[in-house]
Write a structure and sequence with these properties.
Distance between the termini: 20 Å
Oligomer: single chain
Largest sheet: 5 strands, mixed
Number of helices: 20
Structural class: mainly alpha
Length: about 400
């Protein structure tokens, strides 16, 4: 959707792009940040659980319960979020840092903690919007429970940093929010039961701190904030993090009692993490799960494409999610993968119709409208459209990229 405002945070991809520019292999530019951030996330979860409850054991248990959750709809976090959702990985980590700073402020009432939290939150629009929404909601409720003028030190830097990013990079999609109660039907019964027990056992200060997260759970259960309703899990994750800490607190209280309660705590812990652990193990069986994204022919084709297509050119292509041209050359295309555009709330239907028309008729007015510099005709374009190759051969000079792929120069 070349020329359209962003509808998705891109900073984590920009970070990997910088690493590529510095000479790192593309594969490692994705793996290394994810690996480092995953370790940081685990440490932060342990630290948050320890800080809120005063128990390192609770923090360690919470990290396992959080990461190895399991459910048919609320999918395992490692498989569904940590591995593929790179923005979530950074956004969730920063969210936890903000919650730690909130707790520090509640303990010491020093404005520097809110100021740092506000600066971090102000960076979230280009990192992870769902984490930003969760943090703002939690902060709003904490203000009600713990009113102080010092909260201005959080909200002012947040507004000053976040507002320009949102206005500059995003097309606001408030119309995408819809009322949809019980949209997901979370199947986390055992964790919820232990979480409620942990809430009852928690001290008064912890109860006040976690109540906003239950409000977040209710909000995300009633409203969907984007076209793809499953993306609400990125908000539920912040509530589930606190639920994991409360469930771990309940297990710790059981462990401190009689020997049969110790056995019961061990069994309950195993039942909670086994589904997610099994799913994670299954997911990491590379030989069974590997998927060829690009073959050697497409890699070679991309090198030829980069030599023949200027970096700023706009190319008309098919819109499959794994098209070699935008993915491997970085060149702009007229229309990307429509399922992603739909999930981001982008109105792409007219452009999709125009792309089909350009391939069918070679409309010069439409080619000019979308500032198309090159038209690619390859196997995927022939599959998706009724391409009028004869018209393109007659009217535009052609570059033979390989036997199957032709590139037509429009201007």
């Amino acid at each position: 959707m070349a020329g359209h405002k962003f509808s998705y945070p891109f900073l984590i991809d920009w970070l990997s792009a910088i690493l590529v520019k510095l000479g790192l292999d593309l594969r490692w530019a994705l793996i290394i940040p994810g690996w480092i951030l995953s370790l940081i996330l685990i440490w932060l979860i342990v630290r948050l659980g320890q800080k809120l409850t005063g128990s390192l054991a609770v923090g360690r248990l919470a990290s396992l319960i959080f990461l190895f959750n399991g459910g048919k709809k609320f999918l395992n976090i490692v498989v569904a979020q940590l591995m593929p959702q790179r923005g979530w990985l950074l956004g969730m980590s920063l969210g936890i840092i903000i919650y730690l700073l909130f707790w520090q402020w509640l303990e010491k009432k020093q404005k520097k903690y809110l100021l740092i939290a506000g600066i971090i939150a102000g960076c979230l629009p280009l990192i992870h919007l769902h984490s930003l929404a969760a943090v703002i909601f939690v902060a709003g409720w904490l203000v009600i429970f713990n009113f102080s003028r010092q909260w201005l030190y959080f909200f002012l830097p947040l507004a000053l940093l976040a507002t320009p990013q949102i206005l500059s990079f995003y097309s606001l999609g408030l119309h995408l929010i819809k009322f949809n109660p019980q949209w997901l039907g979370l199947d986390l019964g055992l964790v919820i039961i232990l979480g409620l027990i942990g809430f009852i056992k928690a001290d008064k200060r912890l109860k006040k701190f976690v109540l906003p997260f239950w409000g977040l759970f209710i909000l995300a259960s009633l409203f969907v904030f984007q076209p793809f309703d499953w993306d609400n899990t990125k908000i539920f994750d912040h509530w589930y993090l606190m639920l994991a800490i409360l469930a771990s607190l309940a297990l710790q209280k059981m462990w401190q009692k009689s020997w049969w309660l110790k056995i019961g705590a061990g069994i309950l812990f195993g039942l909670m993490i086994w589904p997610g652990l099994a799913e994670t193990i299954k997911f990491n069986q590379y030989q069974k799960n590997k998927y060829l994204f690009f073959g050697n022919e497409e890699l070679a084709l991309a090198e030829v494409g980069k030599k023949n297509i200027p970096p700023q050119a706009v190319v008309l292509t098919a819109s499959n999610h794994n098209h070699w041209l935008p993915t491997l050359t970085g060149r702009k295309i007229v229309l990307g993968y429509t399922a992603w555009l739909w999930s981001y709330g982008v109105n792409y239907q007219q452009r999709e119709a125009d792309v089909k028309l350009m391939y069918q008729t070679g409309s010069k007015s439409l080619l000019e409208k979308y500032k198309v510099n090159y038209v690619l005709i390859g196997p995927e374009e022939r599959r998706q459209f009724r391409v009028n190759e004869a018209w393109f051969n007659k009217n535009f000079p052609v570059i033979e990229l390989n036997r199957e792929n032709k590139l037509y120069q429009i201007n």
